[in-house]
Design brief:
The chain is mostly helical and 97 residues long. The protein is 74% helix and 0% strand. It contains five helices and no strands. It is elongated, with a radius of gyration of 16 Å.
Length: 97
């Protein structure tokens, strides 16, 4: 009986977790996402958590963080050569999906 009361709907957890992350990303001084990218990432995050739960969410989150970090490696040289990601590496909706 106790287990039933502690099990939460994964979709409600997904909305809560992603809303907290959205707020953190929105106020962060270093932008990893554009405003539209944040909205799309929230939607994708809810879908991932709702369907794959925390293990799938962790994999996607790790992929995003590593990809964002790699984009910033040598940013000055990439910008000088004209091959840098646009928006200083901030991800938009086209990068989220």
């Amino acid at each position: 009986m106790l287990d039933d009361s502690l099990s939460l709907n994964p979709w409600l957890v997904a909305v809560g977790v992603n809303t907290v992350f959205l707020a953190m990303v929105w106020i962060a001084p270093k932008k990893l996402l554009t405003p539209a990218g944040i909205v799309h990432a929230w939607i994708l995050g809810v879908l991932i958590w709702g369907t794959l739960n925390w293990p799938g969410y962790t994999v996607v989150g790790f992929y995003f963080l590593v990809g964002s970090g790699v984009t910033r490696i040598g940013m000055a040289q990439k910008e000088a050569a004209g091959i840098a990601e646009k928006r200083s590496g901030a991800r938009g909706p086209e990068n989220v999906w």
